[in-house]
Amino acid sequence: MVYVGCGERGNEMADVLEEFPRLEDPRSGRPLLDRTILVVNTSNMAVAAREASVYLGLTLAEYYRDMGYRVALMADSLSRWAEALREIGSLLREMPGEEGYPTALGNRLGKLFERAGRAVPAGRPERDGAVTFISALSPPGGDFSEPVTQAALRVVGGLWALDPALAHQRQFPAVDWETSYSLQIDEVAGWFAQASGADWARLRLDTLTLLQRDRELREVAGLVGPEALEDADRLILESARLVRELLIGQSAYDPADDRSPVKKTAALATVIHEFHRTALGTIGAGRGLATIDPAAARRALLELRGIAGDPPAEALEVARRAAIRAAGGSR
Amino acid sequence: MSGPVRSYAGAAAASGPLITLTGAHRAALGEWVALTAKDGVARRGQVIEVAEDRVVIQVFEEMVGLAPAEARVALTGALARATVGRELLGRVLSGAGLPLDGLPPPIGSARRPVWAAPINPVRRRKPREVIETGISAVDGMNTLVRGQKLPIFSGAGLPGLELAARIVSGARTPKDEPFAVIFVALGITERECRRFIAQFEGSEAMGRSVFYLNRTGDPTIERLLAPRLALSAAEHLAFDLGLHVLVVMADCTNYCEALRELGAAREEIPGRRGYPGYMYTDLATIYERAGVLRDAEGSITQLPILSMPDDDITHPIPDLTGYITEGQLVLSRELDRRGIFPPIDVLPSLSRLMGSGIGKGTVPEHRLWADQLYAVYAAGREARFTAAIVGESGLPPADRRALGFAERFEQEAGAPGVGAPHPRGDDRDRVAAAALVAEGGSHQDPGRADRDAQARG
After folding, report:
1. Model confidence over B173-229: pLDDT tens digits?
2. What is the complex's ipTM, to 2 decimals?
3. I need a labelling partner for A308 at 20 to 30 A (CA). Which of B112, B119, B332, B365 fits?
4. pTM for this one?
5. Are residues A43 and B124, on separate chains, in Cβ contact within 8 Å?
6. B197 in contact with A, Cβ within 8 Å
7. Residues of B numbered 369-388 whose beta carbons fall under 8 angstroms of chain A's beta carbons: which are they?
């Protein structure tokens, strides 16, 4: 691992420097720092050093990649790096481009990102290594239309967009499911299906559809009040709430929940969708929303989520049955 | 650096805060300059540009009345230095470090470079000791930690300085060591200065404070020097003498305007809104001088105050500041209009170091409670929007409760009213009380808040 703190706060770097030696490598049980390089650049250091720090991290990562390692490179943050380009450009009295950034910004950023990837180095023994480049961007005022974000989005393979509104609701991690995307979904679909033992692609699609409907309905509900919605729509609000709070919302402070293995994520999604489908049937059969008990489904899901590691098949079955009962199903 | 003093008779040109010298030898960037006008008035400056045939000097004092051709310019061969030492405590100085209190200039125990080298991050210690301020919106929701830099984002007419004064006078740490306070006035009015200092006068706190005052009428470019002088003094107090230092700077917006003025005088290509492109780095060289070291006792905590022009948090000044500092306390005009003090809007406010301080330093449930208050308050604010359209009676019961909570939270959990005696209940009481309000006042079952918060994940 290579971690580049580019234009970071000194106190945060002190935090990283204190925490990393304490973090345990889940594979070897030794401190994670044993296979980590930290490149530390604080915001008050020389501006040219800030520009260089990211290149230094990349070159280090490529060196290990060529030895056949899979390297994760974290750069926090590329916005600070772009600011350095802007400062240097202005000191050189270059004609500024958009918002004062050099006109070559898009080009420079593209070349930076393209250094990530899998590579088969020349020579023997045969080996292949990879550099995975995870970088942070901090658009001013959360405005994604600013030049650095826009230039980055043209070349990156995925985006995790953090949304302050979600953070306000204490929805963590505050990754906005609407703006975030990955261009690698198809490549990794097979792996996820195998690792989860479930129809991962279907679960993913169902979850996204539910969340999308939820956002539309909440806008309407914001105007007319949720009481005015039809039962089926109100059910979507309830089910989506389960998704938001129990499936994609995780507590970093809960040892059983800070990391959700693929199997557990799939199990939670399965139970929620089973609940939702059954409840739709209940409503379709003319029985009202009052016969459905989302709180019971929530309890079953909490039980399942509280299991550390992969949940056993029996636990999944218990949760499934409870969710179906909560949805007014017969089984 | 140190070298011989070179004196020159007459400068070539002067414009704005800059004078240009030709034929000077071996001038160094940052070199300190002493200027004497024909009438004997002394001014001080600094070399900011060295070219083959000319040297550009920025002058910290007012330039009106200076005839460059008749001035004597001495390149001192040294970098700018600040007088530091324990004896500065209790003094009132100008933004250039000269006495304003009628006493002789401080001799100090050392002279330190004003432009300090960045602290090596490996030498830093992670800040983790909580500073109790007595303001619930800070202690409960945006906890201040020793070594942090936490700016107050204020606006024209909002009580940013009053809040800073309240924090300074109420600041208490677990071991109850007193703070040394360094106040830097940057282009604020005489009235604001007086009001801030008034609360120290006559109290023992005066004896552990240093004031660097550059008021609205004082030279603009001096504002670039004042915070650095103050921080050099603070570093000596904290890292050599082991004191805990709180540095209050107001108003950093004026600092940025001085920077812009200088940039314009140098005919630099302006960045956003005319501010120089290097403003981020420049601000970082001030704000990053906060922290705690591994091998030193003391600490520097910064409370910069800046006013957001037009209350716009995306303006370059608050925007760039937020990238350097560890969070911000945002004041709300709406809360202020309703007579709530301090009018801290907790939703956009943030303390990035809160997590490392709370829990052990306060109460184990602190994070859980703060998150819950935050979530219910955010829901209440959203419900207030909806209620404006459909009416309060049109809200579902949960939203109605959240709305009721938001109202009470703003009134009660904020802080004691202006002028009220400072209650010294500990964090536990205050946060617990607020958490119970969030629960609709179920005083009999304090465990319920925890369980619900867990259910919410």
Report:
1. 777 777 899 999 999 999 999 988 888 887 888 889 999 999 999 999 899 999 999
2. 0.78
3. B365
4. 0.83
5. no
6. no
7. 371-372, 374-375, 378-379, 382, 385-386
